[in-house]
Amino acid sequence: MRAGRRWTSRMSRQRWDQFLKGNPIDWLLEEENPSVRYFTLIDILGEPQDRPEVKSARKAIGEWELVRQALALQAPEGYWGD
Description:
82 residues; mainly alpha; 5 helices
């Protein structure tokens, strides 16, 4: 990732640094939770949807076992429950 794109603005970085003890970006980008990784890439880092890393993270969401289990419980009409 390019250093200039790691934060959407200098002010954003100052705001993060002001409230957090450390930089959580590396933790948020871990692959064990593809949803968090995807939204970190697009919402926090401002990466475009067409970047291979973003596409890969989005694809991984649908392949994640927790998501597959939740979708398996969904009714054909699109709702959960009775």
